[in-house]
Amino acid sequence: MTRDWMFHCYILKCSDGSYYVGHTDNMEQRLAEHQSGAFPGYTYKRRPVELIWNDAFQTRDDAKTAEKQIKGWSRAKKEALAQGNWDQISELAKCRSRNR
Hints:
By secondary structure, the protein is an alpha+beta fold. The protein has a domain at 7-73: GIY-YIG endonuclease, CATH 3.40.1440. 44% of the residues lie in helices and 21% in strands. It has 4 helices and 3 strands; from the N terminus they run ββαβααα. It has a 3-stranded antiparallel sheet with strand order 2-1-3, sandwiched between helices. A hairpin with a 5-residue loop joins strand 1 (7-13) and strand 2. Helix 3 runs antiparallel to helix 4 (86-98). The chain is globular.
């Protein structure tokens, strides 16, 4: 019996209004760990957290790649992703490339 693994990249909104981006192979468990403060780290003192976006990937490498990319995004671009606003994401990407 084989299992089709699913990996997730996700964005949490912390109680201080900041965002945390991560990846996992068990979204439900990982969210519970963030909420309970099971591990010290960025979200520990910023609880409660709210899951505002996640997407599934076939491989861990794909999820990690998405995590790394999104971590480099502006706050506005992360918010647009959470809202599913692809037009705004595209526009924000254009604005950033013009400023280089």
